[in-house]
Request: fold
Amino acid sequence: MTRASALFTVLLTLLCVSCAQPGGPAAEARSAPADSAPVERPSGTRPRIVFLGDSLTAGYGLTKEESVPSLIQERLRAHAYPYDVVNAGVSGDTSAGGLSRLDWSLEGDVRVLVIELGANDGLRGLPVANLKRNLADVITRARSRGIRVVLTGMEAPPNFGEAYTSEFRRVYRDLAASHDVTFIPFYLDGVAGIPGLNLADGMHPNAEGSRVIERAVWRTLEPLLDTRAGASGSSTK
Reply:
């Protein structure tokens, strides 16, 4: 299987999830599908790290404890970082959907926002300009609150042509550079297309695949953390 085919297989499953959204494949989803779990916010007042994303963040097909945000919470506890993690992943979400729920996803003392959005935009062939505008708005609004941002890249399927795929990929790199945010080029790197790291459907990361992603995210995230996070205020990145 070529890399492009592997990416398409993974993204095809996200499309199946997103098709439950009203408005057909050309619509930009703005509400959660019926089978999406509500976002759970910590009840305490500790600083927060929010993961804003789609089914890959939500942990499609996994237990709550096996999702990437939950694994990051485990790391934080093990290393005595005083943060709570919020899993704001909604299966089938597009960049427009993530933007529409940004304000309530960022409730509380949020210090870091990890953005994992765009796979469903690519699957539906939505305009790349819209993806870029939506993600830029998320980044700008988060940073205006003094929140550090980690942007994770995604790939579009090859069926819309090389020009679309290339333009889609470039959106993330351009945004990371122009907004000077921390960047992970491909969220599914090392997992996409590898049978042993995906569920039985061969498309969504399994528990082991989730840990591969978590390790990569942790390497990028940890340098942004402060062991004294309880202190007021934060600096942007």
Observations:
- Strands lie at 48-53, 84-89, 110-116, 148-152, 182-184.
- The longest helix spans residues 162-179.
